[in-house]
Amino acid sequence: MPYSFFSSFLRRERKAEPMQKPPSRQRPAIALDTMQLDLPFEHAPVFSSPAPLRGDVPPADPPVDSLKPAVPPPAPKPLPDGVRQRRIVLGARPLDYRLKRSSRRAIGFCIDGTGLSITTPRWVTIADIESAIGDKQHWIFKKLTEWQTRVEQRALSRIDWKDGAKFPFLGKTIRVSVAGASTLSFDEPSNVLSLPLPALADTQQIKDRVQGWLQSEAKRIFGERLVVYAEKLVVEFRSYALSSAATRWGSCSSDGKTRLNWRLIHFPMSIIDYVVAHELVHLREMNHSPRFWQTVESIFPEFREAQHTLKHHPPDLLPAL
Fold first, then answer.
1. Contact by Cβ (8 Å): 180, 198
2. What is the CATH number of the domain that holds 218?
């Protein structure tokens, strides 16, 4: 496929090694936003006095410029009650984290948009906490990196909806033209979507028209692919509808009702075909057993590559609409 907005969006992911074994079930995409890990203690003491919090990170002193009057910096956002900001150096890498004591019986690690938070029993010492951090440092740094990558990808998914805006459609880059067209039309050779809007149309108008067109195309194309793969599998789906789910690409019930995420329309046709095939195979195997995956592979041999692409590009990382 020639270089495009979408191929650039996926280029790093295609270099990854293919999955050796399909997962038994799809993990919700939202798991990348809040990552948690608990380390249970087998024997907790009965006392509950808090351990000393030596080495808390003090607020940094403002820089001094002798040529300018001293202007106090904005006050940092206060931490919640009972939460301390701390720092540990692992090798040559400093790691900041927030520490909170509680009545829980395990050390809990949580990584989200604010970084690393640790919640511990009141009786656990700082030495024990830092030892646990050292034991789990690979997991911690890996998840912090994943979270940062996710933030960067979200930034890439933002589109300035105006004349000339670009967005992915079936793996190709489509350009929006707002030049007073009388009807909405798509010119496939030039990949231009002309909108019947005035030249000064606002962002919301342009975005709404593009989304409406994408959803109508999704409805048409998905329906065509469902028929193709239903014939290959010798199954019959009862009905289908579009969804806007944030954590899944499709679903299929035992009575033949199928739902497909309309945002699949951004991907190349091969990705759409994989999701369609995956859901229709459920009409023969309502599970993710080895037999299920064998059936998927029989009609879509390259499913692992498609699976990898979708795993790393959940719906919330696609262009914001």
1. yes
2. 3.30.2010.10
SS3 99: strand
For residue 184, give the DSSP letter.
-
Tokens of 241: 């509808």
Q: Is 173 domain-assigned? A: no
What is the C-alpha to C-alpha distance for residues 278 and 300, in angstroms, rounded to an integer? 9
Q: What φ, ψ does residue 59 adopt, rounded to 5°?
A: -65, 140
Task: Please give the tally of structural domains in the chain.
Answer: 2
Going from the first residue of the chain to its last (321 residues), give the mean pLDDT of each consecutive group of 10, the final group possibly shorter: 43 40 40 46 41 46 41 59 88 89 87 84 91 90 74 61 90 88 90 90 90 95 95 92 86 90 91 95 92 94 87 68 61
Gyration radius of the chain over CA positions? 26
Q: What single-letter amino acid sits at 204?
A: Q
Other Cβ atoms less than 10 A from the Cβ of 273: the count is 20
What are the backbone dihedrals phi and psi of residue 46, each rounded to the nearest 5 degrees, phi first?
-85, -20
The pair of structure tokens assigned to 318 is 């696609």
222 and 281, same structural domain? yes
Query: Does any domain span residue 165?
Result: no
Q: Are residues 15 and 39 in the same domain?
A: no
Last residue of a domain, one of 98, 129, 156: 156
Instruction: Assess whether 14 and 106 both reside in one domain.
Output: no
Same domain, 124 and 230: no
**235: number of Cβ within 10 Å:** 15
Is the separation of the CB atoms in 247 and 30 below 8 Å?
A: yes
| CB atoms closer than 10 angstroms to residue 180 | 12
* 72 token code pair: 């106090």
Question: Residue 144 sits in which domain range?
Answer: 33-57+80-156
Instruction: Indicate whether 95 belongs to any domain.
Output: yes
Nearest Cα to Cα of residue 313 among 14, 1, 2: 14
SS3 call for 5: helix
The encoded tokens of residue 138 equal 């690979």
The whole-angstrom separation of Cα 29 and Cα 50 is: 37
The pTM of the full predicted model, rounded to 2 decimals, is: 0.55
